[in-house]
Request: fold
Amino acid sequence: DAGVIQSPRHEVTEMGQEVTLRCKPISGHNSLFWYRQTMMRGLELLIYFNNNVPIDDSGMPEDRFSAKMPNASFSTLKIQPSEPRDSAVYFCASSLSSNSYEQYFGPGTRLTVT
Amino acid sequence: GQQLNQSPQSMFIQEGEDVSMNCTSSSIFNTWLWYKQEPGEGPVLLIALYKAGELTSNGRLTAQFGITRKDSFLNISASIPSDVGIYFCAGQLGGTASKLTFGTGTRLQVTL
Reply:
């Protein structure tokens, strides 16, 4: 079975550019999570969705960040405009439902903003 | 925000040795999970614990949900080189729905 799929795996962009990260959750999973991982702050939850609806976006750092989930099999995290401090590894994870705490992670997107 | 403290931060052990690491919090958690992350990859779920006092094994890995519900332990027996990675605990607080809080990680190095 396919796990969580993320693209691209690596993204290098210049400050000020728009960046879009993509995620396909495990088929049948109804909850989707976006995390950011840095050495300084560890794994931070940015936003999560249940049944395609954003439930908690309190972890989104600022208005430059936005996330959408137009259907059950696709989500995007967009940063516009990007800044060097956004450089991190961004993970998408999914779980079976809001009552299931077992989250399965994708391989991540390593973002470098120069 | 809420942090889970893991110790030790890093471990250097020899192949064949047993490993023990723990995770503590000032808050009560309803669920504890343990993940392993290898370089360039996402965290992989190892064990999930749902009841205080629960002891669960997955091969050479054994994890326990602390009686106080404020801590959890992970043991690895007879370590092998492929055990190398960063081990994270994660907890689910009551009333926070699906949200998990992740620990700071324990980096494990295994030498031959």
The radius of gyration of chain A is 13 Å. Chain A touches chain B at residues 4, 31, 33, 42-43, 45, 48, 50, 55-56, 91, 93, 95, 98-108 (CB under 8 Å). Chain A has a mean pLDDT of 95. Chain A is about 0% helix and 55% strand.
